[in-house]
Every structure is written in C-alpha cells, then in structure tokens.
Amino acid sequence: MSVLKMKLHWQILIALVLAIVIGLLIERDTGLFGVTLYGIFAFLGELFLNALKMLIVPLIVSSIIVGVAGIGSSSNLGRLGGKTIGYYAMTSLLAIIVGLLVVNIIQPGVVEGTAEEVFGLTASKSDLEAQFADKGATDIVEIFLRMVPTNVVAAAAAGQMLGLIFFSLLYGFFITRLNGNYAQTQLDFWNGVFEVMMKITELVMRFAPIGVFALVAKTVTDTGLEAFGPLALFFFSVVIALGIHFFVTLPLLLMFIGGVKPSRHYRAMGAALLTAFSTASSSATLPLTMECVEKNAGVSNRTSSFVLPLGATVNMDGTALYECVAVMFIAQAYGIELGFATQILIVILALLTSIGVAGIPAASLVAIAIILTAVGLPLEGIGLILAVDRLLDMMRTSVNVFSDSCGAVIIAKSEGETGILENDVPTPARA
C-alpha cells in the first residue's frame, strides 16, 4: 500500500503540472467533432468523484467495525489500552480545534466574486444557503438525534453518516461480546468486506492522477490562475495549524503530562519524522518509529509495541486537522457561513473518520467526501484542494507520527517507566 502511495505522489504531481498547463492553453469550446476538451475534463472529474462516493458507505462501515472489534478483542486492552485510546482521542480533538480556529480566523476561501467565477464551482449558492439557513446552536440537539437513526439502511442511502458511524461503533463493540464461533464468524466476515473494499479503493486510487488532472484542468480552464490565490492561503492555513499542533500542543503535553523536555524528543524522533515526510505513510514509517522510540527515547518494547502500531492505524491528528480545514475552506468558497452546530458536526465527523478510514491510500479524500456529504456540501469542492493535497499529505503524516511517539512517551511515563529521554544526545537510529 505504501508503494502504491509513493507512486501516486509522482503521478499526481505530473498530472497536476499538465493540468495547469493545458488548462491555461485551451478555451472552453476547444475540441474536435463537437466534443470539447472541457466536456471531457468535466466527465472524467465527475466519474472520479462518483467512484469516491461509491466507496463511502461500505468502506466506513467495514473499517470501523473491524477497527473497534480488533481493539476490543485485544488481550492488552486494559489500563494500557484505555490510556492509549484516551490519549489518541484527546490529541485528535485538540488538533481539530486548532484547525477550526485557524480556518475561521484566516478564512482562506472568502473571496470577492462568486464560487463559479473564482473557483469554477457550479453548485448554486442560493440553494446551499437555503439548506443551511435554519441551522443554529439549537441544532446541536439534532446532531445527537441523528446519531441514532430509525433506519440504518435509509440513513446510509441519505448520506447521514453520523448515524451510520455510531451504528458501526456499536456493532464492532458488541462483536467482542459474542461467545465462541459467532464472534469469529462475524469478525471474519467484516474483515473480508474490509479487505475487498481496500482492493476496490486501491483500484479507484490508481485512477486518482486522471481524476486530479481532469478536475484541476477544468478549474484552470474556467478561472485561469485566479483560484490559486485562495488555494495558497488555504495551504498556509493548514501549514500554520499543523505547526501549532506540532510545535505547541504536543510539546506542552510532553512537558506537563509526560514531564519530559520536548527538545530531546524532537532529536530522538528526527529520523522517523524525515522518513514520514518522504514516504507520507505512517505504516511504512512504523518500524523506524518504534526503533527511535525504544532506542532513542528509552520507551520499553511492551509499551511501544502496543501504542505505536495502534497509533499508526487510528491516531491521525494531522489528517483530522486537515479534513476540518478543507471542509471549512470549501464551504467558504461557496460563500456559505456554517453555523455553530454544523461546525460541531464537522469536528465530530473529522474525529471519527480520521480513525475509520486512516489505513487506506489517500484516506483524507475519502474522509473529506464523507464529511461533505454529511453536512450537505457538493463533492465537486474536493477538486479545489487536490493541487496542494500531496505536499500537505507529507506534512500531516509527520505530525501523525510525532503524535504517536509523544503518546508512547507519555503513556510509558504514566506506567512508571524510568530512563525516558534522559540522554541529551540520542543514539542514531538506522535509516
């Protein structure tokens, strides 16, 4: 999977450059035999977005059920497991809140002109405004009501992802409470569904360069380079938010909860952070992360072997932050001001989807599609962020890995382990 992801980086970057060049060179009516290139771009882009939509329901259900059942059945799930899950939930939530604050302050998607003029988006602003007009703080109660759907199949068909996620969490949890062969049969079935969905997702993502090319070329043909100004502001908004979490939030947790010096931990994790940035894969970086945490930071294998593999699967601080900022940016691009209740829903969904779909290639695209569908925004907005997604993916993966390592240190200290980050100069880890 990591090999696929590394290849996709280069293919998507090449597709992005070609899309910008071709989009600048052609006009909307450029074509042959009555078929315009713009029409081809629109068709391929919509086809790619439809493929993402197709994945949403079976992927989110199977991934959450398998993940929750796997955690719940772990023999290590006791005090250590409770601390680990609590830490991961806390840091992901803090990351999302940081992202939400930054995007509301900077407002990268707020521009002069309409969404169609600036970004090439076709959805009607008036229709979207009518959809969000009656939402307010009192609708927080509605969020909790939507968590318990009267018909889970109807909820899935209607795109009510919050209810579907809640049902999947319950289903996965109670699989672990079954006796004998029933539990194993259920787990085998959902593992099979998840593996099938992974294969289908990999197939769809092989065509991601074509989808990126089509969506970006369509936007550039419509607007020229005008959309890249707000996009650059979006890029820096994400970088600023990731920087705050990486250099402020996590070090404060290390100091005040773990009782260790953050500067020593940065040095200890240097090799793993560089590898995470270059591969954009937490899973591919996991062996080196474990080596840095054990040899350089002094965490025991007992703690690291449980905390880090689980973190590489479910702890995605940078991804959750990015999802939140991306959805808010897309809403701003349409000229829609999301109310407090809708932003709370985005926070909840970003937290849950960062766990549920973290292990798949280009997980953020699927997660963003889930959140957009849940809050009622068009999926065409994904095309806005594809131009900068690859580089941001490398950055947020580094944040994900650093958060995992901070969790290992903090939990090890809470377990009474000694010798954590006591050396000023860590032993160099193998690259």
Automatic annotation (TrEMBL):
A GO CC term assigned to this protein in UniProt: plasma membrane
- Signal keyword on record: no
The Swiss-Prot or TrEMBL record annotates one GO molecular function as: neutral L-amino acid transmembrane transporter activity
User: What keywords would UniProt list here?
Assistant: Glycoprotein, Membrane, Symport, Transmembrane, Transmembrane helix, Transport
Bilayer topology reads: Multi-pass membrane protein
Q: Which residues form the signal peptide?
A: none
Question: Where do transmembrane segments lie in this chain?
Answer: 6-25, 32-49, 55-73, 85-106, 152-174, 203-221, 233-256, 338-360, 366-388
Write down the InterPro entries for this protein, in alphabetical order. DAACS, Na-dicarboxylate_symporter, Na-dicarboxylate_symporter_CS, Na:dicarbo_symporter_sf
On the tree of life, the source organism's domain of life is Bacteria
Per UniProt, subcellular location reads as: Membrane
Official protein name in the record: Na+/H+-dicarboxylate symporter
Q: Which organism is it from?
A: Thiocapsa rosea
